Amino acid sequence: MAATDTIDYAAVSGSAAITDSKDTNLVQSSPPSPSKTFYRRTLPNRLISFSSTEGRQLFASAMTSGGTFAFFSLIEQLQTQPEPAYCGLTTLVIVLNALAVDPRRSWKGPWRWYEESMLNCCVDLEEVKATGITFNTFACLAKCQGVDVTAIHGSDSSVDDFRQIVKDTCTSSSHSGDNNYLPSSFLVVSYTRKVLGQTGTGHFSPIGAYDEASDNVLILDTARFKYGPHWVPLSLLFEALIPEDPDTGKSRGYVVLSYDGRDDGLHHVKNETCNRCKTPLPLSVLFRSKKSKDYLRKEFKEYMQSQNKITLTAVSSFWTKEHTNIWELVQPQLQPVESRDVTMVNSLRELLKGLVEKEELDISVPQSTLIARQEMKSSKSCCTSATNNNSERTIEISPSEALFVAYLAILPRQQRRDIVFEEGVSPEKKIDVDETVREQLLAEAALVSYAFETCDWDDKCISEC
What we know:
- This protein has 17 helices and 13 strands.
- By secondary structure, it is α+β, with helices and mostly antiparallel strands.
- 42% of the residues are buried.
- It has a 7-stranded antiparallel sheet with strand order 1-8-7-6-5-11-4, sandwiched between helices. The chain has a two-stranded antiparallel ribbon with strand order 2-3.
């Protein structure tokens, strides 16, 4: 199962178990009210509560050896997951806020701050409430926020490698003389609770500290309604990374999330290669992916593989056929809040319009696609954030512009770059936009491309990106 701390309602209340499929849209009824409820769980013997006498002694020892470098930034942001299956999302929110990543979207009022409903570039949040997320999806979500991601399956690592990563992220030996230095990397583990003797299956949480003397790590458990922060022998935690996740056929693992805190105002990378485990991707200012239509992405990939050549005509014909439209692949982002982002969106649209006009094919958008866009605009669920003011709307972007981005996303990287930078076009005939706008369009296409690649039916998405 994907990482989740949901209750087996069939076992608790005797009712039929709830099943779901990631390849279909489901209308799920609310789970039955359990006849038995729980208030927390007792930690197994080998695990040590952070607040216990022994837990405090371990923390003091870790402080002495410099193993609490990550702790203070994380503890400032530690929160309880708001849904039983939100451990992955809440863990990512904690780390993003600890890294001081600006979401560049309003949270409430004038404030920008990460919370779970913003993490929808690779997932459908209603689906996550029921099933949690997989290791691959966690990596996708993190990459879409513009942070560096190093994701390692437990089966591809060793306990010594894992110990070194723990030391690198939890200790401050290389910066012991700089009291103002803050962590730029944090470690997240995706593990099987049963190996630790806990109830439940898969789970995500950040690692807050390491005590080298006892070789224990501090798990800042996001399911605090169940287990509070606790110390775990490092070797035991590594064993919990190894079991196969039945949803993916791969082991769970650990993820290092890094961010250098820069703010150059561009939110792009000069090289938008899809080597995403090494190169951070920017936040998209145009689109959000719709994970609930995962099966359409699979169909689209298979359709394009059947074509002799990737053309805009082929892309348009797929996303404008009956019962299918481009808004089932992406949703427009919320309107930006800063003037530089407003300028970027306007410039991107100017570039897109110019590129569409230069194509030999004039994209013909069926009325059904236009109607779908209007219906989406009038829907609060599509055009407003769950936590945002209802007056906050999505950006204006046409179906033809969205189709062109989908076309760019399916192209090989170099061909994509040649089109966006209008290689071979004389300077006086090029669209008058800054190079940074072209780079951002490449990044937008790369993010949509990553949505095609990130799929639970194909584990190659992590190894290829």
